[in-house]
Amino acid sequence: MEDYPRTLAELEERFSSEEECRRYLFQLRWPEGFRCPVCGGEKAWPVRRTLYQCASCNRQVSVIAGTIFEGTRKPLVIWFRAIWWIVSQKNGASALGLRRVLGLGSYETAWTWLHKIRRAMVRPGRDRLAGRIQVDEAYLGGLEEGVRGKQTFKKALIGVAAEENENAIGRIRMLRIPDASAISLRFFIIQAIEPGSTVITDGWEGYNGVEAHGYAHEVRVIRGYKESNNNLLPLVNRVVSLLKRWILGTHQGAVSPEHIDYYLDEFTFRFNRRTSRHRGKLFYRLLQHAMAVDRSTYGQIVKHVRGPKKRTHNI
Predict the structure, then answer these.
(1) Hey, how many other C-beta atoms are within 10 angstroms of the C-beta on 296?
(2) What angle do CA 87, 91, 92 make, to 5 degrees?
(3) I need a labelling partner for 179 at 20 to 30 A (CA). Which of 2, 13, 45, 129 fits?
(4) Measuring CA to CA, how many Å separate 224 from each of 66, 232, 276?
């Protein structure tokens, strides 16, 4: 049974102490009871704070070890409020806003927290899209002179996939890709879409051959001079338009390209849960993910990125 606070008042009343926060994280990490990662023992007793000692092998295990909370110097109470505030922001959260609301000491701390939480917005092993899926590429960046076709030197190229749900948009997936080659596009499709689905694309040759990976392939092409290329894949184009508007509105159009994947993760998390009626359920889901992803330090966040580092540019 899903257990989460329904309102901010309920959150503040229920999670007013470190003990209550630790107990909640314990339930999220071991929903069926304690399980030692070394020997598989099912009994343990608390040692101190977040530590539990296995009754079978005496191994001490921390509730927050290997999660985004590992090594934190801030109370879990503050983390819980940060996550609630982030999921409560309809249009996304900024480091400046987080610092102001929580009274954090520095912008660097708020920025690091946000990126740690963004890493928890993608559940390890999440389900791929299925059914009829529109797929396209899009550039994030300003005008770029002296390039041809799909070539770019400064922009971020992303793959975008959107489920067709009758005339509405279902779930989406996004990923930065190095180029629009067949290898890059097929990698994105395999990562994002369940085999057996129908992949709907424009006539770009980079999509040729996806049938060999277990997909049906539907190609849409412009049939008249009055028809716009945007009409071929309207759901994807709508998602890209909303993404660009979100980046401009929430982040003033300036994001670091080496971290673009994590901004895409946040947008995807929010978009796929846009119909959720309860902020508390988003809080619950994000905490679940936070207990499943690996820890990351400020240095790792700055240095360990998914692609080559480039200088910041406006999007």
Answers:
(1) 17
(2) 55
(3) 129
(4) 56, 12, 40
The structure's pTM equals 0.81
Predicted pLDDT at 314: 39
Q: Phi first, then psi: give them for residue 61, nearest 5 degrees.
A: -125, 130
Give tens-digit pLDDT for 251-267: 665 566 677 888 899 99
**β-bridge mates for residue 138, sequence order:** 158
Residues ≥6 apart with Cβ < 8 Å to 194: 127, 128, 129, 130
Strand partners, 133: 163, 199
For 132-240, CATH gives 3.30.420
151: three-class secondary structure by DSSP:
coil
Average pLDDT, the chain: 85
CA distance 155 to 133: 25
pLDDT of residue 4 exceeding 70 = yes
Separation between Cα atoms, residue 70 and residue 100, nearest integer Å: 24
